[in-house]
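User: structure tokens for this one?
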Amino acid sequence: MKRHHHEHDDTRPVDALQLRIGRRVITDRLLYGVSRQAGAAYLRSGLRQAGIARRMGTSTSAVSRLLNAAGPRPSLTTLERFAAAVGHRLEVRLVPILAGYELEIQRFIERQFTARPSTPPPACSPVSRTPPR
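Assistant:
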């Protein structure tokens, strides 16, 4: 049976396709996070985008793209220049990735501890230390 190019190729490992999609999602989340941090640093700096652009030696539109996570992915050099322009330094860290269900469990636990104000655990009744007869 002849296959058309648009049909799913069953010989291609699904994991490879998922991995490629997963990388894109991770990259998008990373860029979104960097953009949010850059936006917060920009607001705290009290500078205008034109002032940051001058300090970086780039255009105002390039600064705008960085702050809005639009356009091409910024290089580490660009991020370093932006950070310095707003009085920060760039820090890159590698952290372990947890497998699917472990990650969901960790997120659930984090939500439980960050969503509510801390309250002391309920008091327990004292336990008798006398051995039974």
